[in-house]
Design brief:
Blueprint (H helix, E strand, L loop, with lengths): L9 H31 L10 H10 L3 H32 L4 H29 L6 H36 L4 H19 L6 H21 L2 H4 L4
Helix pairs in contact: 1-3, 1-7, 2-4, 2-5, 3-4, 4-5, 5-6, 6-7
């Protein structure tokens, strides 16, 4: 009796990629925001903190739990790279040729990992011996990390605008999903110019909430992306 091997179609492979991308997205957000919330509990000051506040913060982080937390944060940053590359392939399938918007979205998302790893390194190095850090070094390390954090908003804004553009032009998702991420991207770009104010939280919250919704939908409705070719 002959055995018939059923090979998955291209749509099946992209549907599997969509589901995997959604799982990766939720996992990396947990690994990212879990450590961020934990580190913030160590009396993290505002973005534009004084040298004395930075010294106190790094002293509070001179603990084994803080170093382990920052290691988990590094995993979250690398996980974000996995997500943005995988999501870029899904956008590429929806966009068709030439896939320039999806390529820019992928590269822009990857910059989150780059900025995040550099910023986390400055915080990790300053907190490693936080009890002996001098105010000048603490001031620089904290400002360096926060400026990198603010610059990442531009990268996320670029990802948001390109992703929204693809969604709006291809209807791979509903139009309101496209406009949602476009508004979030514009808010993130504007926030970089007033980065010490609380306005940055608007676009930031809109962005991550949108990403969470997209990840859930990738898991629940992967077939939508599997049949998204133009």
């Amino acid at each position: 009796m002959d055995v018939v091997t059923v090979r998955p179609t291209e749509s099946d492979r992209y549907a599997a990629l969509a589901r995997t991308t959604g799982i990766i997205g939720i996992a990396f957000m947990v690994l990212l925001f879990g450590p961020i919330i934990a580190l913030a509990s160590a009396e993290e000051p505002a973005l534009e903190a004084s040298a004395a506040e930075a010294v106190n913060y790094f002293r509070n982080l001179e603990a084994t739990w803080a170093q382990l937390t920052m290691a988990a944060l590094t995993l979250g940053m690398i996980g974000s790279l996995w997500f943005f590359v995988a999501f870029g392939f899904l956008l590429r399938r929806a966009e068709g040729d030439p896939p320039w918007r999806s390529a820019i979205a992928t590269l822009s998302g990857a910059l989150l990992a780059a900025y995040g790893l550099v910023g986390a390194s400055s915080v990790g190095a300053a907190s490693l011996h936080g009890g002996r850090i001098i105010p000048e070094v603490a001031d620089f390390a904290y400002a360096f990390g926060n400026v990198g954090f603010a610059n990442a908003w531009i990268a996320l804004g670029s990802f948001a605008l390109c992703s929204g553009w693809v969604i709006l032009s291809t209807r791979v998702l509903e139009r309101w999903m496209g406009w949602w991420i476009v508004v979030a991207g514009l808010a993130l770009v504007v926030a970089r110019f007033v980065w010490t104010t609380g306005f940055w939280g608007v676009g930031y919250a809109l962005f991550w909430l949108w990403l969470l919704v997209v990840c859930i939908r990738l898991i629940v409705r992967p077939d939508r992306w599997g049949s998204a070719a133009r």
